[in-house]
Specification:
This protein has 120 residues and is mainly β. Helix content is 0%, strand content 54%. The strands form two sheets. Strands 2, 4, 5, 6, 9, 10 and 11 form a seven-stranded mixed sheet that branches. Strands 1-3-8-7 form a four-stranded antiparallel sheet, with no helix packed on it. Strand 4 and strand 5 form a beta hairpin.
């Protein structure tokens, strides 16, 4: 069955960096878009970054452009989120999600989430 396992969250200072990983199994990874999403307390889950299955296109929400970078290693069935210049407002539970198709981020499976906290 499909499994998505996130790791790499933790506590960072403002201006610091973290890298999140999402290890996938149970499906042909390169055939599907993958995305990172986050949910802060009291807010709805939002799209953060996504990458098409073939790796040819990446998408970011405006608030993270220039600070976060999504990448994927189709040989390792893993998607990453490099987060630099972290801000307090990046604090949230971060999820990876599997798209239903190669070219969109309509998610059909979610990981369990990894907490990112940005504080001094």
């Amino acid at each position: 069955q499909v499994q998505l396992v996130e790791s790499g969250g933790g506590l960072a200072q403002p201006g610091g960096s973290l890298i999140l990983s999402c290890a996938a199994s149970g499906f042909t990874f390169s055939n599907y878009a993958m995305g990172w999403f986050r949910q802060a307390p009291g807010k709805e889950r939002e799209f953060v970054a996504g990458m098409w299955g073939n790796g040819n296109s990446k998408h970011y929400t405006d608030s993270v452009k220039g600070r976060f970078t999504i990448s994927r290693d189709n040989a390792k069935n893993t998607v990453y989120l490099q987060m630099n210049s972290l801000k307090r407002e990046d604090t949230a539970l971060y999820y990876c999600g599997k798209g239903k198709r190669a070219y969109d981020y309509d998610v059909d499976y979610w990981g369990q989430g990894t907490q990112v906290s940005v504080s001094s």
